[in-house]
Protein 1
Amino acid sequence: MTTLSQRLSALFLSLFVVGCSSTPDIPPFSASGYLADRGVVRIWRKNSDHQSVHIRTFYTPFSGGEDEVTDYVWLEEALISVQRQVKGDQPDDVTLRFDQEGGLNFMQRQLAGRREAVSPDAVELYKFDARRMRQLSDALLSGRVFLRQGRWQGYNRLESCEGQQVKTAFDADTLQMLAQQQREASAPLMVSWLEAPEGVQLLRISQRDTCAQQPKEEEM
């Protein structure tokens, strides 16, 4: 697991130093993710004939707050929309749409009970986040770092969200932690993890049904 963490760090460092010079050979529909400073980021990506790219991210804070779900869509390399949703007691939804020259033609921020405009500085930040997420997705998939999710069944076995029986390569410490949390949980544990040529890395443990949350290719 340490090896994979080091590999991810190296990927990100390489990305920010030299950037992505080319689009990696990636499958039409894929998932990846990484551990951020304050939470977990899971990424689903759909490529349509290399003309349209749709990336959906789920950011789950370590503090236990609501998921932040963001959809980015590009058409012929031009960012055409960003939609970010935070649900719960304090909902906060932002929608931005752009033309293919990068001009903003629609913006809206919907808070609890009111709407607001999005400031020019905030629009630029959303555009920056979109570029960064596209580059991170390229780097992760180029490194063959893929996300998997499933229901923990004990004894190093899971049922994936696709209904397959999976035996993981988690180390002894991770298995012990999962067994302990399952004993204390009131429902089956849902596990998200990364698989790469260098090994596996546990991303997230939850009692929420993350399989129900996982998007399908036809939904993107």
Protein 2
Amino acid sequence: MTMSQDVTALIAAYREVLAQADHWFDDAATALGPMLGCHIGCCDCCRGLFDITLPDAVVLQIGFQQLDGHWQQRVLQRCRQRRDLLQQQWPELQAPYLLNHLHNRPWQTMPEQDATPCPLLDDQGSCLVYAWRPLTCRLHGFPQIDVDGEVFSECCCPYNEEAVTCSTRDVQRGPFRELFTREAQLIRRVNQLLTAQYLYELDTFIPLAFLIDFSDPGQWAHPVDIADL
């Protein structure tokens, strides 16, 4: 994967956002103690389809390049199979595999009963690119409450509900407004460098992220009609 120096610098800054999310999650997990439901090998939340940003896709590809050839081939096979199924449903889903092409944004109401495992799980249910996983994967599990008390998300993994409910203190708060503001700025700048348009939102699915050729400028010529965003 060949990226411009400008995009590479933005991805380095984006990884700082990911590290900030990890710091919050680790502090929250430590505060909840032994009742915490999340543990190595638990992959019940690593299923189905959900949208990720282009910076997330770039980071995933960097992590993918660290895998040995055997796992790279297995992951790519899974991703291609998932893409082929998706294209049966949405023939317009073509390279560079952006969801914003799809009419009525169907990915925002993906079925909860979709239990298809993430293509990045190994045989023990652990993430092959854990250090490179998307932001949403890093934040999942606890309610997201800003340091000033604003609730950004009340969602909690069912396995963590007892720990959160029984905790003698509030769930660890974090700098979510700052984190999400910085994320949005970096997303727009990466999108602009790739497409020459200042787009707020360009998304894909994890299985499609590994099939995007970021080194091919031609495929970004007309990524999406800005009026559709």
Protein 3
Amino acid sequence: MNEVKQSIHALNQVIRGKDQEIRLAVCCLLARGHLLIEDLPGMGKTTLVHALAQVMGLDDQRVQFTSDLLPADITGVTVFDKNTSTFAFQAGPVFSQLLLADEINRASPRTQSALLEAMEERQVSVDGQAKPLPDPFFVVATQNPVYQEGTFPLPESQLDRFLMRLELGYPDPESERAILKGEAGRTELDTLSTVFSAQQLVKAQNEAAWVHVGDMLLDYVMRLISQTREAGYFNVGLSPRAGLALIGAAKAWAWMENRDYVIPEDVQAVFVAVSDHRLQAKEKGKSVRELLASTQVMG
């Protein structure tokens, strides 16, 4: 538990004024989830991912997604070795504990889909053979707003593989002043120390998974899911997989709060980050936050 507090404190020295977003990012990793960070260029998305990898002690690789990137550039390729007269597999950057998919929506849908199996099954299939990925394994992707030129919207099937989506937004004046003075951001990355090891992170994930979810809490989650389907706000409601994601994130949040059981406030803390990218509003002004506020905790 002390490691979590130390990690959040260290990350707050790099990304100033974004404590809630940092806590959600750490929660996402503890829940064994993949993370999507969407915002304008220059908001610190990539810096946050590098800081997460460093603090969590994860072996990380970065892939800059572009329109000419091919699936094999991510997963790897089998090549012929003249010296041994055999074919050998050269692993791609996906064979790392944390893969940073930078500006993921600048690549074609075909290349984006190369990550689907890796994110869901923790393996990739090459030449008919399934090759397992490291444990732990995370994809942390950044994307620019879809209205910017040269972007390809992520399909619903791809979005659904991300446990959470976060937006950092502009920093507050005090935090921005610290950034301009060189007291935060990339300049602080070199001073970050590793708080977790990969083994400690897996242990923490296992502990978070055992957090208790009572029947009354499950009733509350089911009311929330039902509201997304029946309230008329959204084109399509949350799926059962989204419900499992919500429970897993709430467990991790409860564990971070040093509890072995989930309370409604844990669900509320993660609900928007888990649900917002999975729901498309029918009308302007209808939001996930509005649905959350209007759903009663007790039936």
